[in-house]
Specification:
125 residues, mainly alpha, 6 helices, 82% helix
Amino acid sequence: MPISKLIILYVLTLPLLPLLDLTWLGVIMKDFYRGHLGHLMRADILWSGAVVFYFLYTLGVIYFAVLPAIESGEWTRAFVLGALLGCFAYMTYDLTNYATLANWPLVVVIVDVIWGAILTGTIAT
């Protein structure tokens, strides 16, 4: 795929990730996360960390899910590969926290991993 098409794909995909994720975290599930993890939350969000995550994660979604789906010609492959990527990425974060941080709730692990799979599968598609 020509670099110009990759750039267009990236630019079109990038805004969707924070839009969906921030809607989930800040609106739909705000009380859930505050209730379970409020004692760990910053008073002010460190936006630089979030921005770096969204920029880099979008690259991963395109490389590991979107491009293989384009090559195969099967849009469903984008969802499946994206969902797997999201599951493993969010599982890495959440299970590491569950294993190393006191009072990291198992329910947060479960909800986050499911969300990671849905979010990444959707973005890839």
